[in-house]
Amino acid sequence: MAALDKAKAEDDLREGVDRETIETVKAMSGSYKYGWETEIETEYAPKGLNEDIVRLISEKNGEPAWMTDWRLAAYRRWLEMKEPRWAMLNYPEIDYQDQFYYAKPKSMGTKPKSLDEVDPKLLATYEKLGIPLKEQMILAGVEGAEQTPAEGRKVAVDAVFDSVSVGTTFKEELKKAGVIFMSISEAIKEHPELVRKYLGSVVPASDNFFATLNSAVFSDGSFVYIPPGVRCPMELSTYFRINAENTGQFERTLIIADKGSYVSYLEGCTAPKRDVAQLHAAVVEIVILEDAEVKYSTVQNWYPGDEMGRGGIYNFVTKRADCREARAKVMWTQVETGSAITWKYPSCILRGDDSQGEFYSIAIANNAQQADTGTKMVHLGKNTRSRIVSKGISAGRAQNTYRGLVSIHPKAKGSRNYTQCDSLLIGDKCGAHTVPYIEVKNNSSRCEHEATTSKVDEDQLFYCRSRGMDEEEAVALVVNGFCKEVLQALPMEFAMEAQSLVAISLEGSVG
Amino acid sequence: MAQTAVKAGGERLATLALPESGAWLAAARKAAQARLLAMGLPGRRDEYWKYTNPTSLTDAAVTSAAAFDDPSEAPAFDAIDRVTLVFTDGVFDADASDDPAAAGVEITRLAEAGARDLHWARDLYGVLETRGQTPVARPLAALNSALATDGVLIHATGRATKPVSLVYRHRSETSDANLHHCIKLDAGAEMTILESGPGAARFNTVMEVEVADGAAFHHIRTQGRDHDRRVATHIFARLGAESRFKTFTLTANGVLTRNEAVVELTGDDAQAHIAGAAMGDGGFHHDDTVFITHDAERCESRQVFKKVLKGGAVGVFQGKILVKPGAQKTDGYQISQSLLLDDDSQFLAKPELEIYADDVKCSHGSTSGAIDETALFYLRSRGVPEKTAQALLVQAFLAEAIEEIEDAAIAEDVRGRLDAWLARRMG
Question: From the DSSP assignment, how many helices (H) and strands (E) are in chain B?
Fold first, then answer.
């Protein structure tokens, strides 16, 4: 059916459409671009999960005893927990014993001292993904970036490949500014006082089923510390790549923005095409102190599974930012196009007076994808502000749910929330759902919630078609317009990627 | 895990003494008991009771409530030419009631219906309630179907001559009443049901309404001033093509009120309007729970709910619009708003959309906040005293929901009641 549709779309193209359009559409219709696999020798921990595996991961990372104990406590807690099933997600039982919890390329046996020592195959992988691991390189695919001054376009990258961090760029330059940016496994050894103080302070080890699992078995991830008053001189980013088969990726990110500091953080992720679903359960914790600000942007592009719903990543993620002190500010921006199953609710704990939380999200579900995503805004401090803009797009047979909580506590006087959730349906086999919880417990606060669901506007489509665009292109353009407010919240590099992703993700959804 | 918590009370439910009755009603009660046993009573951890504690509605013992009767207050809908049927503590009171025949519809008392072969009632009693049990269980409604001893069965074959006014009186401090009404409107029929009065210390009502093609059903209800009451009401409605269903509820006070409306639009071009205005003070807990299913094309549903809360009052709104595959051209609208008059009150809302058709227009909005300071300032600058200004703004806020009532005379009556209740509260 889909093949037929594609053939039809190609026929349409040949009638009076210029060469460039054909090229553009062809480039877009490659569907999942990152589905290849790096052939590399991989070392696995034995299959399954038990205390020995938890100890083994801790040992592989050369962790101190307190860390091992922390993991074991989480593991024991996890055994008593039940997998949550309240989300509007339908997936087969996950066999937690039928997974590898640790996989690393053999060439990473001894940690390379610098990027020059990293296995060329790994470097080639990131190069192919468009991720610059050489410091002189700039992010691929960004038009006009050559004209921007060198200072402005630097992005430091921590590259995580299966269970390990391959390397982190610009470490030295960042160090001069006092910024600590390294893998969390290194941070546990080099900055135990910071890790010990903040790890689990936002997402406690016992928080929820998937976060607790992560606390027990996380293998690597990124660590960021921005000292007081420092504006991070460049954007930081982590790129997660799952390569090994039957392996879950469990990374942990911890970001601490000390008083008056600022950082913009980007996260990207991809995985090869496989028929068997793979598990990803990450935790991101952000601590924001007085007057500090963190921007966290994600382009989630895990393999979504094929048209029949075979394979794909099961993405169960706990992300939370704690605006711990006055005037702290956090902004979550997410573009969710990948994964077979998405279970993700980046949240803001607005504890400090006058603190602010923002959540901008685009979630696209096509074919058999299912997404249940949203945010929680917990207003605890006085005059706290939050803003939620969520755009959900469903196509094919996909189900897309916005699930969110806005909670204004009795003591959070003078607080303000604005929520806007819009859903767009493309085709009559998909579903779009909105499940907000709104709890207002004082009267000096104002809370506003708006949600709409509609189909792609026929007039807009007609206009685009009358200008010579084919239907898919027209839909992509209209959808990009629908997502505009969120796309604008992304850093430029990501906005470009996100825009083309929107088009790719909807490939095959019309016609 | 939720399952085991919900099934609490199973032993009690299995041994419930079902009322004696004729064959078809006895069978319907047994079936309801079986449904109830399968789902169990709602518990605190039940997601559908997240914001309202059902314990006092499900406890074996009834929390006593002072009987409420204020002779200074004019009877509800006094200005409307109506047929009044009175139930005292859940039992029909023929002496206090008008002659049912005057309404121009066929009215039978549930307590007397079991012995008669009312095939239309047999096809309705517990049937819409059962349909309304999925996807969310409503055990209190099944409990009602199993236990209800009284109520009315109304069959409208054409246009009713007068509205039927169901008046509930509360005399016993420990009364635990279940009333179950079935209303069937044949194609093209039209009628209005009015409900008012405290009812009982604990009061559980179910109204099943079948609205055939082209028929119109209006329901206007006031719940008020008997502060100690604990009430769970349920309306289950099924709508045929081009039919209309409109319900409005005005509520004041009450330690616990849960009004559920479950409406299924099964014929094309049907219309359902569900509205409510509530005001509460102190230990007031008011919960509006609405579930609308669009299962036909070009239907319209509209929910308008307004709440004014003060002195620690809690307002809850759970409203869901479900648009089934194929229910194209659906127009679903929902607004829930609360005005918090002081810092102790709470508004808890869960407005939900679940949509499986693409050519639809659905939206919901929810707001919560204090009285608009600018508007208050304006009125004060015109010489309106603060209390009056506040009352005016509250009145205007709630009046928007009253505008949903179609019949001008009834709307006027409700407005008058609202004003009287407001005057009492604000004075």
Answer: 11, 19
pLDDT score, position A281: 95
Interchain contact B331–A (C-beta under 8 A): no
Locate tokens 């007057």: which residue? A291
Amino acid at residue number B15: T
Contact B42, B6 (CB under 8 A): yes
φ, ψ of residue A501 to 5 degrees: the values are -60, -40
Per residue in A339-388, pLDDT (tens digit) is 999 999 999 999 999 999 999 999 999 999 999 999 999 999 999 999 99
Determine the residue of chain B that is closest to A430 in CA distance.
Answer: B356
Residues B145 and B110: beta-carbon distance below 8 Å = no
Interchain contact A14–B (C-beta under 8 A): no
- Please list, residue by residue across A191-229, b when 16 or more beta carbons sit within 10 angstroms of its beta carbon and e when fewer do: beebbeebbbebbebbbbbbbbbbbbbbbbbbbbbbbee
ipTM of the complex model? 0.88
Contact A448 B367 (CB under 8 A): yes
Mean pLDDT of A29-39: 75
Residue keyed to tokens 């569907």: A31
Q: How far apart are CA B312 and CA B380, in angstroms?
A: 26
Question: Residue A16: its pLDDT value, please?
Answer: 42
Angstrom distance (rounded) from CA A246 to CA A240:
16
Q: Is B103 helix (H, G, I), strand (E, B) or coil?
A: helix
Strands A416-426 and A446-455: parallel
B405: tokens are: 């009532």
8 A C-beta contact, residue A344 and residue A315: yes
* Cis amide prior to A233 (ω within 30 degrees): no
The type of residue at A34 is: Y
CA A404 – CA A238 distance, rounded (Å): 26
Partner-chain contact B326 A438, CB within 8 Å? no
Distance CA B398, CA B277 (A): 6
- Residues 431..460 of A with a Cβ closer than 8 Å to B: which? 431-455
Handedness of CA B10, B14, B18, B22 (dihedral sign): positive
Backbone angles phi, psi at B83, to 5 degrees: -105, 115
Question: Which chain A residues are within 8 Å of B356, Cβ to Cβ?
Answer: 430-431
- Stated as kind and residue range, the H or E segment containing A42 is strand A42-44
Q: Any chain B CB within 8 A of the CB of A488?
A: no
Domain edges within chain A: 1-30+458-511, 42-344
Taking only the tens place, the pLDDT of each residue in B263-303 is: 999 999 999 999 999 998 888 999 999 999 999 999 999 99
List the one residue out of B356, B317, B309 whose CA is nearest residue B334: B317
- Please tell me the distance from the alpha carbon of residue A167 to that of residue A135, in angstroms, as a whole number: 12
Residue B64 amino acid letter? S
- Is residue B171 packed enough to be buried (19+ CB in 10 Å), middle (13-18) or exposed (0-12)? middle
Q: Provide the pLDDT for residue A3.
A: 43
